[in-house]
Amino acid sequence: MKSEWGTIRASLFAGAALLAMPAGGVWAQSDADASEAEDDVISVITVTARKREEALEDVPIAITNFSEEAIRDSSSRNIADFLQNSPGLSITDGGGGLSTISLRGVSTGVGGNAVGYYLDEVPFTGVTVPTNPDVRSFDLNRVEVLRGPQGTLFGEGSQGGTIRIITNDPNTDRIEARAEGFYGFTDGGEDTYGVRAMANVPIIEDVFAIRGVIVQEEEGGFIDIANPGDVEDNINDQELTNWRVKARLTPTDNLDIVASYWSYDNNIDSTANANDDFVVSERSPAGLEYEQYSARVSYDLPFGNLFYAFGNTDFLLARASETPGFGTFTADLDIEVQSHEARFSGEVLEGLNLTIGYFRREAERFDLVEIPSVLLAATATITSNADAIFGELEYAFTDRLRFAAGLRYFDETLISVEGGTGFGGVPTIIPEVNETSEDFSPRFILSYDVSEDLLLFASAARGFRGAQPQPGALIPLLDFLPEPPPPALSPDSIWTFELGGKMSMLDGRLILDGAVYYSDWDDRAVRLPIPGTGISALTASDGLEIFGLELAGSYEPVDGLILQAAASYVDSDNKSDVPGTEIMEGDPAEDVSDFTFNASVLYRKPVTDTLDGFARVALNYATERDNPTLITGTGLPSDNILQLDARVGVEAENWGIYLYGDNLTNEDGAVNLQFLGAGGEFQGVRLRPRTIGIEVSVNY
């Protein structure tokens, strides 16, 4: 099997290199962009991956940038639909807006996030869980995937990289409106449909504007339940409402103030977990809500920019399921994260760019775990207060040679208090956990412009996570272990060493980028199964060694035809055996595909003076994700997954109508690790079966 896949991988990588696979986000250009680009077919893309505006092709780090038009052309409903097109990234959407992300082999099944996650300028990090708030892919300006450790500028949790979701700001100079609707028919399941709308209104022209977005979606179920007391088809319905409002004030040319409010509510009758027949023996309902309010102030100086951002996110998750040996298991989770960041960036001297800032985060997590059959109702309150100072300098020795060096100092105090009742209803008495930790995270980048069309770079960067408390309210269960782990694990960190390059050819029609890297992850927190419960705690391992290769690019052989593909290979090895688990030295990381490949063909061509024809076909492939952390008999790897999507239609300046097909091959494998369910069958998250539908969009 390994040798066979070696041949397949080699062939796909060779084909990918010839085809040219997508460098960050060179997906498509608007008509306005095309009119501005005189020499290059693919126009300049601006990103803020280093907390200052730069052209994508000039940034010496590995980035995938998804533009608003690219997201729209892909017919994506949420970010999980398109993030998998970034090389090295795997994402599991478990339904109900819950997604877990691994990037460059950095994945975690328990503990805090190991991949940074930003909604605009607001991070979701600190005493969190390895899942991320869902974002519907409507009215997004762009999404940046920064690959490799980003701890220097983006802080804790950015060990594998950072995902930045950037929404459109209000326009103060014009009225805008857009609406979209879709209706889809699912094989063997219920229909799915939804509407999305945006309105942008200048209140005072060129000074003050408001932009509002609302999304309402109904997803019909496709999972059945069958047990003696409960038989029903299509139980995993979802009802989602998401809206946000942004206000923008630009009283002078130098001052820009933006405030926003987000609201998200998703009611899930049951998650998308099921056996190979799409059947379960118990329901697993869930509810997810979050709200966020934030503000940012930007002031331009003659030599740089002053910036301040504030954010507050309240994340509520309620879950219920059947646990082998214990019956009904419920877990409620409430996380609130408040952050402040102030920074300066600019060219302070000729050839010398400086970014320097201060970050403050206050996070609180409350857990309630209940197992009525044994009278357990345990609670946990975990608070984290963290401060950081960071900075990065970049100096241009010549017009072609640049060197950047940065450092972040991080200090955190973590307090965990547990209470409630343990087994048999006995009051829980657990000493308070108080952990203080600090971290230094440097990054070094050397880059060289071989020519205007070729950039090479080498980097070394460190990412980190703070102390990891045991999963909320589970300390009473640690008594089941012969050698219980500590109530909180020490911080873990990763070093990544990388060589990469970006190339533009054929007057910008061909864009390539690639990277090879080695990562050394120390003291990694892993899943520690608690025998007889189906529940896992945390324990520390010696860590992982990871080797990876990425290739990406985009090619426009003729106007309107864009070919894209991306491929990555990840080889991860545990450094040693982990007592109490099935992890052995040399085992791969859990929940990581060692090979991923995606490709798409997009063609847009005028059919009349006022109408364009549109067609896009996309393929995604990922190898199985292994599962060495579970006790023998309770877990299985995922399946190899091959997904094919298509979209065709006609569009005019102010409207479009499309037919779409998702999962055309009717892929029915488990896309994540499979766990033993209460009914004795292995269950994993399933893709929605083949869905054929229609979309309509109008804009003003």
Question: Which features would summarize this protein structure in a list?
Answer:
700 residues; mainly beta; 22-stranded antiparallel beta barrel; 5-stranded mixed sheet; 5 helices; 42 strands; globular; disordered N terminus
Describe this structure in words.
This protein has 700 residues and is mainly β. It contains five helices and 42 strands. Strand 38 and strand 39 (655-662) form a beta hairpin. Residues 1-42 have low confidence and may be disordered.
Helix content: under 10%
- What is the rounded Rg? 25 Å
Counting helices, strands and paired strands, the structural category is mainly beta
Uncertain runs are: 1-42
Shape: globular
Mean pLDDT: 87
Total helical segments: 5
Main beta sheet:
22 strands, antiparallel, barrel
Strand content: over 45%
Roughly how many Å apart are the termini? 54 Å
Number of DSSP strand runs: 42
Sum this structure up briefly.
The protein is mostly beta strands and 700 residues long.
How are the secondary structure elements laid out?
Blueprint: H1 2-19, H2 31-36, E1 46-47, E2 54-55, E3 63-67, H3 68-73, H4 80-83, E4 89-93, E5 99-103, E6 116-119, E7 122-123, E8 140-147, H5 151-154, E9 161-167, E10 176-186, E11 192-204, E12 208-219, E13 224-227, E14 230-232, E15 238-249, E16 255-268, E17 273-274, E18 279-280, E19 286-301, E20 304-323, E21 327-349, E22 352-371, E23 376-396, E24 401-421, E25 433-451, E26 454-465, E27 468-469, E28 488-489, E29 492-505, E30 510-522, E31 525-530, E32 535-540, E33 543-558, E34 561-574, E35 595-606, E36 612-622, E37 635-636, E38 641-651, E39 655-662, E40 674-676, E41 682-685, E42 691-699
Parallel strand pairs: 6-9, 13-18
Antiparallel strand pairs: 1-2, 3-8, 4-5, 6-7, 8-9, 10-11, 10-42, 11-12, 12-15, 13-14, 15-16, 16-19, 17-41, 19-20, 20-21, 21-22, 22-23, 23-24, 24-25, 25-26, 26-29, 27-28, 29-30, 30-33, 31-32, 33-34, 34-35, 35-36, 36-38, 37-40, 38-39, 39-42, 40-41
